[in-house]
Amino acid sequence: MSTATRIMLPDAVSRLAGLAFGSGPSVETNTPKHLAFLPLEALELDLSDPEQRDFGDYELVELLGQGGMGVVYRARQRSLDREVAVKLLSAGPWASADFIARFQREAQSAARLTHPNIVSIYEIGQHAELNFFSMQLVKGKSLAACLDREGKLAPTEAARLLRTISEALDYAHRLGILHLDLKPANVLIDERGEPMVADFGLAKRLDEALAGDTDEVSGTPCYMAPEQALAKGQRIGVATDVYGLGAILYELITGRPPYLGSSPRHTLEMVVSGELEAPHVLNTQVPLDLSAIVMKCLHKDAAQRYLTARGLAEDLGRFLEGRQVSVRAQSTLERTSRWARREPKLAGAVLIAATSLLAGLGASTWQWRRAEAENIRAEQAASAARQALWKVRDRDVDALVAAQRPLDALAPLLDNLAEQEAVAEPLARTNRYTFAGLAAAAPALIDVLPTGTNTGQVVIDPEGRWVVTLADDHVNAQRFDLASGHRVWAGRVDPFYASTSLTVAANGRYLLGEHSNWAMHNRRGQNGSLVDLGTGAKIMPPSARFPKLVRLLFSADGEFAMVGETDDAAGGSVVARLHRVSDWRVLGKPGIFNGNLQLSSGGQRLFVFERLATHGKTPQPMEMLDAVTLERRWVVQPPEHIRAWRLSPTETTMAIGLLNGRIGLIDVASGAVRWISSPYQSSAVNEFEFSRDGRWLAAVHDSLGVQVLDIDTGTIVMPSLPVVANRELQVLDIDPQTRRIGIQGREQCLMFRIDDGAATLLHSAPGVGANSRCGMNARLGLLVVAHNSEAAVWRLRTNLPLQAQAPVLEMLQSAPRVYAARTLHVDAEQAQLQSLDGKPAGPLMRFPFAIGFALDVGERVVVSSAAMLHVRNSADGKEAYAPIELPANPVALLAQGDTILAAWAVHDDGVPAVRIATFDLANGQRLGERTLPSFRPSLALSADQRHVLAWYDDAMTGASGLLVMKRENLVDAVGSLPFSSQPEAKLIRYGALSDGVLWRMRGIGGDAGYHLDAIELETGRSLQSWPLDVPFMAATTNGKKLLAINQSNELLIFDNGASPKVIKHGLPSRDGHHGFAVSADGLRAVVFQGNAAQWLDLASGRWLAPPLSVAQTRMFTRVALGEDFALLSDDRRRQWLYPLHRSDEPIDQLRERTQALLPGDAPRLPTDAERVRQQLRAADPGPPRAAVSMAPAKHTDIEPPFVDLRPKCNLPLDRTGEQLHLAIRLDRAIVVGRHRLLGQDYEVRCGVFPKFVPDRDANVADGSRIDGIAVHGQTARAIDFLMVAPSIIVDRIDPQFAVLEIAYRNGERARKTLMLGPDLRPWLQPYYGNAPNTQRMAFIGLSAQYFESVHPRAPKPAAYHIRYDNPHPDWPIDGLAIESTRRPYSAPLLLAATLVQGGEEDTP
């Protein structure tokens, strides 16, 4: 590494070097400090040296360039094996703090931007004392290099390039970021010829720029705006970047920058006061319109430039399309010429008539043809320009929606919509849906409150009736009524202390003002002021009675107060006593307190924490005293200094946060402490926030983030919210009922939903800037954003599941079309049709046993209850005919048109298989029956119900094939189907049938690949075959087309063409279920992948509505479409409504409504403010509908011959078995209730699960055992067990898996050892050595679907029927036991047991 060389600089430059690098001579002068003059003293690395090439996770490859803030290298990121660009801070470890801050600001600013024409930032960090950030590597040259090599550009090419750059800058401006150093060197041209804006080296937050003047000169002189060059006292903003854009365009079309003096100082003088030659003077090829656009950008008065970069882009678009630009009036001749190009036929006719009088028909014809040709070329160029602009805006919209900023996405989308409708572009129809979907998903603005001042805090009533805003002076407050929008009162709330924050008293009658205390980061409970919430009146002790008042502390309900006065008798100390506020009567003994106090409701308990001790001293204890007698009730000595504390709203728990990150929960009654293990053990707790019911506690840690705890269980509900950690983080509200939490951080207010330890971002509040303050009511979905002199009130729209609960097993099947706006709600043994708003749409239907499948087929519903199929009328719930009895519970059930298709498990010569049967839906008549050589075939009915398809690729049986069977008798409809000559290619992955075409996907991947075949059903003739890179995850047919989705996030449409149409759906890649459904007209589809779903337009490939997402730990399993909505089911049996919206309002009305919603510094309230506010309040959609908790299933008592496992159950079927190495989702596999499996009845309620051995290489001394499963003296000749082996790794030498034991009344015992292979098998092991294939598989559950998508040939989690022949059938049985063995991963899971009593036939 070379040493830095000191360069002698002119005095102004030297002063700047000193400012930037903390070195250089100090010269007293008023000359502005100027970063443009800064010489680069960068670190020069010798890349031939491996040690210098090694830079943490990066290997530096070559030097790419240098900038004002740093040096850039091409590098390889080892962890992700990708090429990136790495920018190092120029001054290395010698850089000053100010320069480092500027460098980090550049990275942080650019990192917030996700745009196809802005260079992306990947990582910001420090390595070996060097600050750096890594970014997207753009392979190409800078615009400056292109100009040096090729010279100036053609005017249209320059305009097209600058329009794209302007669109990118407009995106940055809408996110509140200025560039401030725009120049050709900071624009990169990639391999596609697309511009990429880079080097936000002087980037500045827009609200900071607008908030005040700047004293610093910054930028590059040739491209600086006058306000940058003047620096002192000048306001910079969006217009500054507009100037930079104009300067770039000037150089593109003239070949030189606007101003170029003999020195930087001379250049700056020219920028401020020099005259500028218009571009068309320097280059006569520049059209006057384009020249006028440039000159407007470069106006010395910022107010005379384009107001926004979007305005510039739109004018450039008009220029490219040959329309009149906004900055220049056209002459009659110009207007006539442009009219002729737009209306060639009419213009040609006029021209022919005029010319024929002068030159004859031949000349006029030639002129007409020339005009026509020019018009065609102009229209083609204009169309290409429009399409390119629309695509850029589409990318803007996608990026904003991905960042949960739907309101910001409305403006570019509306621009596209307006332009597309103006030229009758078909995409306009799609964007009508997209715009309406965004507007419906975005928060609804329901009022704008005129606060008249900057706001320091917002308080929202728990019931949503009012809002209180506290001014940023922490002195003045005002209350607004939300129903009317009227101000109720305004006044000072600082009678004693300046209130840093306000809270609502426990009784809801008062506002409590919490005062500051340097020692405690969390000041909750330090209530120094009291205000009557109804009137705004301040409540203070009368000065006549308390002339020496120096301290005041109110109770949590505001009814009592500790009043402290100076006591001369006590040596001038402050003596405090408890008083009743209503009459200021003394209630307690005097005491002297030097630290922090908190008084509980009712004035009963006084919590005392003296002070925050310094490091190295003994941590101070926390005490609770009787507030009247001051007697100590308990004291807690923490192991580390207390940093934050908070009393729960129920006043049963005191939370304390320590300097080392530990959290303690003190029981208020006893003083006992529960210490919570935290992932942030090294990060101090800054703040606590309890939910209003006291069930959840959010802890904000110093620099690492937010975690959420369950107070009752002491468990961590959410280990870490995905927010940028900083000291400004604040929890606004938290609600366990809706599982929502609101967070305010640095310039952002966010709402998350917490599910299963994962957080989903629901909303990013609009209009949040550096001076904004937010308030949130998570339960009611209310958000208030106070900015400048207004407070916008928003109603958050949140997706919640429908009340109706989906059947467990129905989710295994392909989705039927929704017949009406209703869904079928299932709860244990009962079912009911319900409307989408949860109201009954039919009678309550009861069935004998637990429901497995429940299918709505229009006028009838088909329900499986144990081994019975019930067909009932939708209108009255009565049986259409006698139930159909099957030999066992169905493992698959389809109902479509006039056909029912059912499948159940059998054993065919000891091999697990499936028996299928078809029935006539009209009368229940059995049509055909057949055994398939696979336990888990995929089944489908053709669209006309004439054929049944079955395809299978079964690793357990070795069977693979595709069958097409006639509906009426299930005999083969097609004989031998053509296959590839390669045996591996015969493996069937998918089959479908529509309009006489059979679709088949086959293959195993690798070199053999995959193939899709289209086969003519009647002849078996191959119509077409397509090679596939990746297999399908799901597919469906639509007429003669096949639509499929694959693992590459693609929707494929196969027709008779040579290659399929490919649509990228854009959902995040996730393992799990994949699926989709197509609308009846074939124009739209809903695709789901993992936990997200999205509406798509099949013609354009664009999305129609923002994605619907559930928690990351869950996944969708099926989708069905109605006319304008989709119903999705997830793997927790919840159903979700996903509507499709469309807006037919005129463009002008949409634009007016959009402008009112867009965040910005301009006041939202127009001149007719009250009328607009009334309209907003009237359109309030109201609180989000709360999720409905289902009543627990009601089951009859368990009586013989069924064994009641419930007293010994340790694994409920409504939750995941966390103990398992890979959790088997039992609640998604088998229904609670009665089952008939392989001819035996079982009563399934829960699971009995002995502890398993976690280490494969370990042999524990004793396995775990669960005994005492009561049988109550019953006798049996055998016992049938329903069991699961969820292990994945087994000991192949010794297959002992579990032991079953019978305990008799006489004290004797009998034992049976279960063997892996003969009795049951682990779920990812197809075979166990040479063990006989005698397992009796009874059931495969829903969780198998997941593994089928990830491991198509792997056996799936299954339940096995195991018979234990009783060696003493006449002996009364006292109980049963089950235990794991010594073998690694022994994990027996018992679901049910049934006694086989005398005289019964053997189980089939």
Commentary on this structure:
Strands 1-2-3-4-6-5 form a six-stranded antiparallel sheet. A hairpin with a 4-residue loop joins strand 22 and strand 23 (about 585). It has 20 helices and 84 strands. The radius of gyration is 37 Å and the shape is globular. The N terminus and C terminus are likely disordered. The longest helix is centred in the N-terminal third of the chain and has 42 residues, at about 360-400. Helices cover about 20% and strands about 35% of the residues. It has about 1400 residues and is of the alpha+beta class. Helix 5 (about 155-175) packs parallel to helix 15.
Entry summary:
Helix content is 18%, strand content 34%. The protein is of the alpha+beta class and 1404 residues long.
Oligomerization category of the chains in this entry? single chain
Binned, the helix content reads 10-25%
Morphology: globular
Beta-strand level of the residues, as a percent range?
Answer: 25-35%
Largest sheet: 6 strands, antiparallel
> Which class do the helix and strand fractions yield?
alpha+beta
Mean pLDDT: 78
What is the number of E strands?
Answer: 84
Distance between the terminal alpha carbons, to the nearest Å? Answer: 82 Å
Q: Which residue ranges are poorly predicted, with pLDDT under 50 across at least 5 consecutive positions?
A: 1-42, 205-217, 517-524, 978-986, 1187-1192, 1215-1228, 1255-1261, 1288-1293, 1323-1332, 1342-1355, 1400-1404
- What's the alpha carbon Rg, rounded to whole Å? 37 Å
Strand order of the largest sheet: 1-2-3-4-6-5
- Count up the helices: 20
